[in-house]
Design goal:
Length: 773
C-alpha cells in the first residue's frame, strides 16, 4: 500500500505511469541483482575498518530499523546529488570520520524494509558507478515455506565514479530521434532506445511526452524544450544563483531569463513532489521581488512583470524592466472559440484519436497561445484566462494594474475569481472516501480485506442489472442454499438502491460466497482465495438451473447444435482475443462476423442454434496475458461493438434478425475485477469497484475511453436482446464503431453524396436505414 501511494504521488495520481513505475521496480531490482553478481568478479572495494563498521551497526540498532545503506565516500557524490538523494530519503544523515580513521565522511540511511533500501541503490546507480559490500548477515525463516532467507542488514556502498553525463545537445538529439521513430510507427525501436539511454541518466516518458535527466534537467519532447532543475555545473540552489544575491542589485539582476529559470525550476520541483524545496525557493525569490503563486499558477515581479507558471509565459504590456521573453501569439481566441477548441480536443480523446488531439494541442499552443493540459484537465491562455477541460469552465485571470491577475486587490471581473473556479488538489484518500459514500448513486458490495470477493461481486452486479433475470430469481421457490443466498443479496441491493434521502449502503455477499464454496465446484471458490469471474458466472447459473430456477437461467442459456446432430447447453460463448483481432484484420469483417468465424467449429461446420437466441448473450473474451500490450488492448476495445445481431453470431431459426445491445462488462486489471454496467433507468454507465460506485458516462465512447485509460481487460460482455428491429428499421446492419462503419462503407464502394430528406435530415446511401453518426 505504501508503494502504491508513493507511486501515485511521484506521478501526479496518473494510474498508468504509476503502474508502469511499480512494474519497473521489479525489473530494476532483478537487473541490480545481476549487476551486483557481475561486480563480484571485479576487484573488491577497500575494506572498512572494523571500528567503523561497529559504529554503523550501533547506529542501526539504536534506530531499531531493519537495515541500512552507507555511502562510505559521500564526498564523491557532490552537494547537488546529496540534496537530491536526501529529498527522496529524508532519514539519511552524514557520519563524520573519526580521528585517525582512513575513511572519509559517510552518508548513513536507515530503512524499515529491504525494498526501500533497493530503491536507494537504484537511485544512486542512475548517476554513479558503485561497488557494494554486505555486512551483518542475518537470516529469517519464511513462515509458509519454512525456508531460511539470508540478507545483509548493512550495505556498504563505495562510489567509483560518476556515469557519463548527457549534455544538452546530446539530449536534444536523442529525444528528437525518439520522436521521429514514434512518428514513423517504430514504437518498438523507440522503446528500446529509451531503455538504452536510461543507462546514461536520460529518462524519456513516451506516454507523458516528457523527458528528464538524473541531474534535474527536464522538458517536453515535442516541441523540444529544456529547463534546468539545477545548474549544469552541479552546484545547488536556484539557477544562476539569483536567490543568493541581496539588496537592489539582486532585484536588478532578475532579467527575464533569470525569472524564467527560477519559475521553471519551481514547477519542476512541484512535479517531482518536492514541495518543501519548492516552498524554500519561493521564499528566497520573494526576498528579491519575485512572487510565485502556485495556487493561481501565476508569478509577478516587483517591477510589474507577470505571467503564468506552468507553462511559463510573460505577459505583454505590463511595463517590466525588459521586454517580454516570448512574443505573444498573433491570434488571441475569443471565449466562444476557446470553448469550441477545447471541447473538440475532448471529443478526439474520447474517440481514441489521441494523435490528432496532441497535434491540435500543439497548433493552438504555438499559433493562438492556448495551452491544454490533458493530464491536469486544465486549459489556459497566454492572456490569463483559464478553466477546466471537462466539463468546460472558464475563469478570468487577465493581468490587472497590480501586475498579477487574480491576486488580492485586482480589479473586479464579470467572471468568478480563478481561485473560486479552480478545483483544489485532492488526495487519493479523499477520492476513495467520496466513492465509498456512493458517489455513483448506486449500492456497491463489500469486499473486506483478505476475503477476495471481487470476482463474485462483479458477477452479482451484472446479473442484478438484468431486470428479467432479477425478477425471475426473486419469484423462484426452493430451499437451495445458492438460490436463497442470491435472493438475499438481490433483496439487499434492491432495498439499498431504492432508499430515498440517504446514500445507498453497500451490501454483503458473504452468505453467497459461503454457499458457493460448499457446492460441487467449491474447490475452485474456496473461502479466502481469488477465483475466476467467468467460472463463478457459469457455476452460479448451473446451480440455479439444477435447483428449479429454470425460468431465470433461461435468460442466458441456449442449446448449440452442430452439423452432426450433437447438442449441448451453453451459458458463455468464449472467443480468443488474438483470433478475433487476426480475423478482423485479415478478412476485414465487422466484430459480429469475426465472432462467428472464430467461434465456429471448423471440424463439423458452422454451429447453429435450434431455437431463438437467448435474451442475454454472454461473450467470454480469452486473453493470452493478464497484462496485454497497450496496442492489443486498444485494438480489441476498438473492435467491440455496442450493438450486435445475435443471429449473425450464433445463428437463429430461419435467419431471423436478433438485435442486441451491450449492457454490461466484467473487467480485469492487476489481479482485481470491476464491473461497468448500463443503468436501465438513467441510461448512464456506472463502474462498480467493490463499494466504490462511479458514473463513467452516458455513451459507449465513455466506457471505451475509461477502459483505454485504466487498462481494463474485458473478460465478460453481456449483450441483451432488444426485441425490436435493429438500427432503425431495414436490414440489420450491426456495428457502432468507426472501424466497422468504415468497413461497410468500403464494401459499398466508398462514401456517396447523401441526399436530403423532406424533413431536412440526411438519408443513408443505399437506403439501408438512417445514417449512423
Amino acid at each position: 500500500a505504501r508503494q502504491c501511494e508513493k507511486a501515485l504521488q511521484l506521478h501526479g495520481d496518473d494510474i498508468d505511469r504509476a503502474a508502469d513505475w511499480l512494474f519497473s521496480q521489479t525489473e530494476t531490482s532483478a537487473n541490480a541483482a545481476g549487476e551486483e553478481a557481475a561486480e563480484g568478479a571485479a576487484p573488491p572495494a577497500a575494506a572498512e575498518p572494523g571500528p567503523r563498521i561497529e559504529r554503523f551497526a550501533q547506529l542501526l540498532e539504536h534506530g531499531a530499523q531493519a537495515c541500512a545503506l552507507v555511502v562510505c565516500n559521500a564526498d564523491k557524490l557532490g552537494t547537488a546529488a546529496v540534496e537530491r538523494y536526501a529529498a527522496f530519503f529524508p532519514t539519511s544523515h552524514p557520519v563524520s570520520a573519526e580521528a585517525g580513521s582512513s575513511g572519509g565522511d559517510a552518508l548513513f540511511t536507515p530503512f524499515k524494509a529491504l525494498e526501500e533500501r533497493q530503491q536507494a541503490v537504484d537511485l544512486l546507480r542512475q548517476e554513479f558507478e558503485l561497488t557494494i559490500r554486505e555486512e551483518l548477515m542475518t537470516s529469517l525463516t519464511n513462515v509458509s515455506t519454512h525456508a531460511e532467507v539470508s540478507f545483509a542488514r548493512l550495505l556498504l556502498v563505495t562510489v567509483v565514479k560518476p556515469k557519463p553525463r548527457v549534455d544538452d545537445g546530446q539530449g536534444r538529439t536523442v529525444v528528437e530521434h525518439i520522436v521521429a521513430l514514434v512518428r514513423q510507427g517504430e514504437i518498438g525501436e523507440a522503446e528500446a532506445l529509451t531503455g538504452e539511454v536510461k543507462q546514461l541518466g536520460l529518462y524519456v516518458e513516451l506516454q507523458q511526452q516528457r523527458w528528464h535527466t538524473a541531474d534535474g534537467r527536464a522538458g517536453a519532447m515535442e516541441p523540444f524544450t529544456l529547463s534546468h532543475g539545477a545548474e549544469t555545473n552541479g552546484s545547488s540552489g536556484p539557477a544562476n544563483g539569483v536567490a543568493r544575491e541581496s539588496g537592489a542589485a539582486a532585484q536588478a539582476a532578475l532579467t527575464d531569463e533569470n525569472v524564467k529559470k527560477i519559475v521553471e525550476h519551481v514547477a519542476t520541483l512541484v512535479r517531482a513532489n518536492q514541495r518543501q524545496q519548492a516552498g524554500d525557493l519561493i521564499e528566497q525569490a520573494a526576498e528579491h521581488g519575485l512572487r510565485i503563486d502556485l495556487q493561481q499558477r501565476r508569478w509577478a515581479s516587483a517591477d510589474g512583470r507577470s505571467g503564468s507558471v506552468d507553462p511559463f509565459s510573460l505577459d505583454s504590456g505590463n511595463g517590466g524592466a525588459a521586454a517580454a521573453a516570448e512574443a505573444p501569439p498573433a491570434t488571441q481566441l475569443p471565449d466562444d472559440k476557446v470553448q469550441v477548441v477545447v471541447e473538440h480536443i475532448v471529443t478526439l480523446v474520447r474517440a481514441g484519436q489521441r494523435d490528432q488531439a496532441e497535434q491540435l494541442i500543439a497548433e493552438v499552443k504555438s499559433q493562438c497561445g492556448l495551452y491544454v493540459d490533458l493530464q491536469q484537465q486544465r486549459w489556459q491562455t497566454a492572456d490569463g484566462r483559464a478553466g477546466a477541460v471537462e466539463p468546460f469552465t472558464m475563469s478570468s485571470s487577465r493581468p490587472s494594474a497590480n501586475g498579477c491577475g487574480g491576486a488580492p486587490g485586482a480589479e473586479a471581473s464579470e467572471l468568478p475569481n480563478p481561485s473560486a473556479a479552480r478545483p483544489q488538489p485532492v488526495s487519493l484518500a479523499s477520492v476513495m472516501r467520496e466513492q465509498e459514500r456512493g458517489k455513483g448513486g448506486a449500492a456497491g458490495i463489500l469486499n473486506p480485506r483478505g476475503e477476495f470477493n471481487c470476482f463474485l461481486s462483479v458477477v452479482v452486479q451484472a446479473l442484478w442489472h438484468v431486470r428479467d433475470f432479477r425478477d425471475a430469481v426473486m419469484a423462484s421457490e426452493g430451499d437451495d442454499t445458492i438460490l436463497c443466498a442470491l435472493q438475499e443479496t438481490f433483496a439487499g441491493l434492491t432495498a439499498a438502491n431504492g432508499a430515498a434521502g440517504a446514500p445507498p449502503q453497500p451490501v454483503s455477499v458473504e452468505s453467497l460466497r459461503v454457499a458457493l464454496s460448499a457446492t460441487d465446484a467449491g474447490a475452485r471458490f474456496r473461502l479466502g482465495d481469488m477465483a475466476d469471474a467467468a467460472e463463478a458466472f457459469e457455476a452460479l447459473l448451473e446451480r440455479l438451473r439444477d435447483c428449479g430456477a429454470g425460468r431465470a437461467v433461461g435468460q442466458f442459456e441456449y442449446d448449440m447444435h452442430d452439423s452432426v446432430g450433437g447438442s449441448y447447453p451453453q451459458f458463455v460463448l468464449y472467443a480468443n482475443v488474438d483470433d478475433i483481432i487476426t480475423t478482423a484484420n485479415l478478412q476485414r469483417v465487422p466484430f459480429e462476423s469475426a465472432l462467428r468465424l472464430v467461434t465456429s467449429d471448423s471440424a463439423v461446420g458452422n454451429r447453429k442454434t435450434g431455437q431463438s437466441p437467448p435474451s442475454v448473450l454472454t461473450l467470454g473474451l480469452v486473453w493470452a496475458s493478464s497484462r496485454p500490450p497497450k496496442e492489443q488492448l486498444s485494438h480489441m476495445l476498438d473492435l467491440i461493438d455496442e450493438r450486435l445481431d445475435l443471429a449473425k453470431v450464433i445463428g437463429a431459426p430461419d435467419g431471423a434478425s436478433a438485435p442486441a445491445q451491450l449492457v454490461g462488462l466484467v473487467c480485469y486489471q492487476a489481479s482485481h475485477y470491476c464491473a461497468i454496467v448500463r443503468d436501465e433507468e438513467s441510461g448512464t454507465w456506472r463502474q462498480f469497484d467493490d463499494t466504490a460506485v462511479t458514473v463513467v458516462g452516458e455513451s459507449w465512447l465513455d466506457v471505451r475511453f475509461k477502459c483505454h485509460s485504466s487498462r481494463y481487460q474485458p473478460a465478460l460482455a453481456l449483450y441483451q436482446n432488444t426485441r425490436e428491429p435493429a438500427f432503425g428499421g431495414g436490414a440489420a446492419e450491426a456495428g457502432g464503431t468507426w472501424a466497422n462503419m468504415a468497413t461497410r462503407c468500403a464494401a459499398r464502394g466508398g462514401i456517396t453524396e447523401p441526399s436530403r430528406t423532406p424533413s431536412g435530415g440526411v438519408a443513408a446511401a443505399g437506403g439501408a436505414g438512417p445514417l449512423l453518426t
